[in-house]
Structures are given as C-alpha cells and as structure tokens.
User: Fold PaaX family transcriptional regulator from Longimycelium tulufanense.
Amino acid sequence: MSVLGAHVGPDHRGRGVWSGGLVTLLAEFGFSAAAARVALARMVRRDLLTRVREGRLVHYTLTPRTRTVLREGDRRIFSLGRAPRRDPQWTVLWHAIPEDRRLARSRLVTRLRFLGFGQVQDGTWIAPHDREREVRALLAELDVAAHAGLLLGRPGAGTDFAAFAARVWDLEGLAARYGRFVAEFDRYTDPATRESLTDREAFVLRTRLVHDFRRFAFLDPELPGHIAPVPADRAAAVRLFHELYPALAVAAQRHFDEVTSP
Assistant:
C-alpha cells in the first residue's frame, strides 16, 4: 500500500500496474517472489486490489475501497502536525458490532486508529478532534451505523485528563519514535547526499519515508498542549517529511515507472 499510495498518484489511481513489476519492486524491501505474490493475492481477497488479465500479462488496479482509504490517508498524513491546536471538540464513538460482522469491526478499528482515535475500553474510542464527518462516512461505508453511537464534547473541568490521555495513548513511545525518524532521515536534507542517490535508491528511500511517517497517523492523537506536551521531535519529523517526499519524487517515480512497464 505504501508503494502504490506514493507512486500511483490521485489522478491515476484507476490505472493498472504490471504484476511482475510489483514483484520486482517488493524485492527491494526483502520480499521473495513467492512472498510478494502471496501478499498481492491477499490484497485481492481483502478487496484492496483487483486482478486484471491482459493477454499473457496480469495487472493490478486499486479498488474503490482502496482509493477511498488512500484519499483519507493523504488528508491525514499531509495535515499531521501542520495546524496549530486549539481547545477542540472531542469525538467519542462506542460500538457493539455483532460477532458475525468481525471483518467490519476489524476494518473500523484500523481506520479509527488512523484518524487519531485511542481505545478507552472494548468498543469505546476517543479522539481530540471533531471527527463526526469522517466517522459517519466510515460507519456508512462499513454498514455498521446501527451498531454504533457518536458523541461530540469537551473534557470536564477539574478532571485529570492528562493522566487519562497517557493511559489511552503511548505518548512516551510516540516521542521516541519521532526521534528515531529524525535520526534516520535527517542526513538526506543535504542536497548533495540526495543527488548521489540512484533512481532505485531514491525509490526505496521515498517509500520507507512515507511508510514510516504514515505510522504517526496511527500513533499521534495531536493532543492539545495543555493536556500533553508536543513531542520534542514532531516538528522536525514533519519538516523532514515535507521536504524529502517531493524532493525524491522525480527519481523515485522514474524507477517505479521503468520497473512496472512490461
């Protein structure tokens, strides 16, 4: 998903990508050919890719579900850490999805985490944002609105909400992860270092960059400053991502297009 999301742009997400090229690209990240084909087949079963045969060649296209997820992901990733936080409305979601809808429940949980929600207890989730629009659309998409409730509000005065938030989100682990991200990618801000990269190296680096940065969408609730301090290296990580992602784009895209052209 990271490879496709980064290199099949929003205006071309209906295009087919040659299967042999995808297998070759996945080898750059340690996948054997057999493991890559198993991963692609699994994505087809999960309605993330559609397999299309054209003569002797097989191509994969993104499903409508995947295009929706990638659009949502783009909004979340590219806005992360960019807007000043005020005292926001919070969103609380609780659900009691039946056991026979286990797949829908699993998909709901994944998407909630990507929207910055943390789990309070089984079936109860909270986010320090007004996520009503996104959650209503998600519940409708998964057809589970009848099994869920949604509430907007603010923390009550006089409660130790900072301690509560620290139980819901791993804030210390988040701060450490931002530090590791900066330590790994900071040297590529030097233009001479980037220019020394081959197209293949730029592709691998850009994919790793977006793959690692997108994890922050699952981990960082972007809490208001009066509840928890901003992670020390968040601003540096955001700056690095927004500098390197476009700077590596041309060379990385060249490699992607060359390898996925049969």
About this structure: The mean pLDDT is 92. The CA atoms of residues 136 and 145 lie 8 Å apart.
